[in-house]
Amino acid sequence: MLWPALPMLLAIPMWAALGDTAGSVLTDQARWKGTLSSVDNGTYAVHEITLSSGAKVREYVAPAGAVFGIAWDGQFPPNFEQLLGPYYQQLQQAIADQKAAQQASELQAGTQTPRQRRGAVMIETPGLVFSQSGHLRSFHGVAYIPQLVPQGVQASDIR
Amino acid sequence: MMRRFGLLLVLGSIVVMAACGGSGGGSSSSTITSVTVSCSPTTVSSGGTSQCAATVSGTGSYSSAVTWAANAGSISATGLLTAPSVTTITSVTVTATSTQDTSMAGTAKVTVNPPAAGGNVTPLTVDAGPSGVGYVSRNVAFVSVLVCKPNTTDCQTIDHVMVDTGSSGLRLLSSAAGGEFNLSLPAENDPNNNNDPYGECLVFLDGYVWGTVNTADVVVSGETAKAVPVQVIVPSSSSPGVPSSCSSQNPSGGAGNEGDSLNAFGANGLIGVGLFANDCGAYCVTQGSSCNGSNNNPCIYYDCPSSGCTPANIAIAQQLPNPVTAFSVDNNGVLIYLPSVPDGGSSTVTGSLIFGIGTQSNNNLCCATVYDVPDSGNNAGNLTTTFNGSSIPGFLDSGSNAYFFNDSSINVCGGALDQWFCPTTSPDNLTASNQGTTMSSGVQVPFSIENAGTLFQGSNSAFSTLGGPYISTPAAFDWGLSFFYGKDVFTAIDGAGTTGGTGPYFAY
User: Fold this and answer.
1) Which residues pair with B213 in a beta bridge?
2) CB atoms near residue B226 (< 10 Å)
3) Closest CA to B243 of B300, B188, B196, B290
4) How far apart are CA B431 and CA B429, in angstroms?
5) Which of A80, B162, B324, B394 could bridge to B267 as Cys pair (CB 3.0-4.6 Å)?
């Protein structure tokens, strides 16, 4: 997966959850006007912010202080531009590529390879893993940066 | 049957000759220990057939022979049940009795539906999709809907409207977006903001639809929803275009507009007849306008004056309802029946979308089991599915086109088919169990998955064995349209009273 380095540098937003420092958790809490609860198990800390919509966002922070993963659940999907910061562009590109390939396959005469309708979304790139599942009134998802996940932590711990 | 040998069987002490049927058993040292029966399909229409089979267990050289009986309809010597004609959903009991030991018998039940007739029934068809779509639609169920300007006869019949138990609200693909709908409906206006017309951005898993909120009379069969809010979906190229707060919410960004073309949407419309009475709820009443660029609240409804769209609050009565709630009767839920399809699928299948639960003679719960689901919280709308030893959220969704679940032991197809299962043994027979919130234990659900590459080779549209990986965290089980064939599946609306209790629940 190519990193769109230059556009990312030009478009650094004033907020970022994924990939940012532990301090950004408090920024997110203030910005999202949510309540915060934190648990630290020694290997990483999980900070859960409950939004006014009732949705919950959990930010997984490594000892070195980077937010290596986030998880969410709620009635509606969260705002991914806010949640993923600079990783949002990378996600959009990966999904656009995936959709284009699926739609091309679907239309290709003779192959008849339909896409899943309403199946979970899963994007796996070397620099970003994203998945979201659910249905109206109940969405769940995770996003994490594989390189930032601390030693000994399983991807499945991010939930 | 020869009377002489019959007499010998009664005496039970003389070996019966094989020519009399059975596997030459019946010696005094053999016994029958059990008779179990299964019939397929388990749900049929009046006059339809279901093939029943008996499994006899015993000791020694016992006879597997059985005699068949049914408490309604007729059943052949080979276990083929011909269902009676019924006026209400009826359970028929089939019995297989061991000929060797008439005290040993087994039973199975078959549900028989009345003929599709009445003002609360409309044909539900799984077929190749709307005219003009660029592919063979797979496992999407459609109805036709009549849409009128309120209180007028200015109407349009829209065919190939997808039926979705996973959402709420009627959404129509405008002709500008590649659909059929081109009536000019009255806008729905925000009484608290200069009567600005409403717009709506509804986000799905990896995309969204955008359009105006209008009012219409919606007529399906004999049911009418008067002057209800509906969404008319427009493409990104429309003027004034999609607000960036709408498109930037979903993972695909601007490319996520599922209403940009008929191929993207896959239908001329979507009728959401799911568990919830409206498509947003309390959040949109008080917090809809508070979504902004930094607080992570979703932007759903908008005020759209000519100067541009801004997020808005909206009363429940003005949100898109599940149209069923707006019918004067038969308004507490729906029943979906699709006939069973054989392995390999069928080209086209027609069943019924029936409105109401326990309100008419054709929508009684009969023999269905009710699975209550939570109406709010983390697992709103989900039952508990246990599969391969793990209990995870599960949901029934006619808008998903297959079983979607995670099982790393099932081979995934290669290449462009990597969203589908290609089990090495096909069909691959599996079992899960489902449990509602008020049940003390789950009920088994047998299902099977066939090789999708083989299924897709022809141009069949209806498959009960189509499945694909659903890699999600946390894991979940999506009982999509594959599940619905050969069953009566009820979806009861949140807060609605039914003969099976108050919704929300699924029943089948």
Assistant:
1) B231
2) 15
3) B300
4) 7
5) B162
Closest to B338 in 3D by CA, of B125, B112, B158, B97? B125
d(CA B241, CA B231): 15
* pLDDT of B20: 45
A32: which chain B residues are within 8 Å (Cβ-Cβ)? 294-297
Closest CA to B320 of B496, B172, B183, B146: B172
Q: Are strands B196-203 and B105-113 parallel, antiparallel or unpaired?
A: unpaired
Residue for token digits 């609605």? B496
**Chain B residue closest in CA terms to A57:** B296
Q: Do the Cβ atoms of B113 and B86 come closer than 8 Å? A: yes
Query: What letter would DSSP give residue B288?
Result: G
Question: Rounded to whole angstroms, what are the CA distances from B360 to B257, B335, B471?
Answer: 40, 12, 41
- CB B170 within 8 Å of CB B230: yes
Residues 6+ apart with CB under 8 A from B431: B444, B445, B446, B447
Report the distance separating Cα B111 and Cα B487, nearest Å. 9
Rg, chain B, Cα only = 26
SS3 B492: strand
Model pTM score: 0.91
Q: Going by DSSP bridges, is the β-strand pair B168-173/B223-233 parallel, antiparallel, or unpaired?
A: parallel
pLDDT at residue number B250: 84
Q: Are residues B491 and B165 in contact, defined by beta-carbon separation less than 8 angstroms? A: yes
Cα–Cα distance, B487 to A17 (Å, whole number): 46
Considering only CA atoms, which of B368, B370, B380 is closest in space to residue B166? B380
Which candidate in A136, A149, A153 is best for mutational testing of the B interface (most B CBs within 10 A)?
Answer: A136
Strands B310-311 and B301-303: antiparallel
ipTM of the complex as predicted: 0.84
Q: How far is B249 from chain A (nearest CA, A)?
A: 4
Strand-pair category, B74-75 with B155-164: unpaired
Residues of chain A short of pLDDT 50, as ranges, are 1-16
CA separation for the pair B213, B208 (Å, rounded): 15
| Residues of chain B neighbouring A101 (CB-CB closer than 8 A) | 416
What is the rounded distance in angstroms from the CA atom of residue B79 to the CA atom of residue B40? 11
| Chain B residue numbers touching A33 (CB-CB < 8 A) | 295
Please name which of B416, B148, B139, B395 lies closest in space to residue B267, comparing C-alpha atoms: B139
* Predicted local confidence at residue B102, as pLDDT: 97
* CA distance to B2, B238, B435, B500, per residue, from B368 (Å): 43, 46, 13, 9
The values of phi and psi at residue B18, to 5°, are -60, -30
Model pLDDT, residue A64 = 84
